[in-house]
Amino acid sequence: MKKHPKICSACLLGTNCRYDGRNKTSHAVINLSKKEILIPVCPEQLGGLATPREPAEQTDQEVFTQSGKDVTADFVKGAKEVLKLAKLLGVKEAILKQKSPSCGSGMIYDGTFSGRIIKGNGVTAKLLKKTEFG
Question: Which InterPro entries does the UniProt record give (predicted)?
């Protein structure tokens, strides 16, 4: 049976694309990339946001920067671009950065910039979960 490629948060593969211009390299993900095809994506960059950029957190259905700028449209655009890539490349799975307002799966920051974690999904994770993207 042919293995399908996986979408992967680019920061986990060592790409300096996080809001602070850094990465969140995961050695487990790097090791996996030696055995499987991982397609690096940064939904925030795909949505048109610069790197580095002001920190952003999700509140309900919207995403705001720490200074209060609404960047929801950028996050939604990036999520849709990731979904397009997933469908185009026959992706069935995704490896996403925890707690991120775009990639967070199951747990995200609460939107108060206090470091508090709550149950929820980032914009991209939410779109991929509700869409049969394979």
Answer: 2-thiour_desulf
The enclosing H or E element of 95 equals strand 93-95
**What is the DSSP secondary structure assignment for residue 99, as one 8-state letter?**
B
Tens digit of pLDDT at every position of the chain (134 positions): 567 899 999 999 999 999 999 999 999 999 999 999 999 999 999 999 999 999 999 998 899 999 999 999 999 999 999 999 999 999 989 999 999 999 999 999 999 999 999 999 999 999 999 987 64
The pair of structure tokens assigned to 45 is: 């960059």
Q: Which two tokens stand for residue 102?
A: 């775009």
Sign of the alpha-carbon torsion through 6, 124, 54, 98: negative
Residue span of the structural domain in which 101 resides? 6-130
Class of residue 124 by CB neighbours under 10 A (exposed 0-12, middle 13-18, buried 19+): buried
